[in-house]
Amino acid sequence: MAKVAINGLGRIGRAALKIVLDTPELELVAVNDIASPDNIAYLLKYDTVYGRYEKMVENDESSLVVGGKNMSHAVRRLSDSVRCAQREMCRSQ
Question: What's the CATH number of domain 2-92, 3.40.50.880, 3.40.50.720, 3.30.565.10, 3.10.180.10?
């Protein structure tokens, strides 16, 4: 199974997240966005283009839970240290 981390959860990142979660060969282990986890959860639940998301979306300060799958959520601007951290999260999962 390939492990995936997504940097940026704008419209395209959220669409990619949904595709990854629906693809059994892929495992989403981490997401990174400068928005707060509360905002990301809200945008996943109530997308103005795709409508309401059918899966349950929850969050806490450091993770998102979508459809029962927990993933680490970083709130950082992309830098080399974040890229390194994302690689480490993927290896450790």
Answer: 3.40.50.720
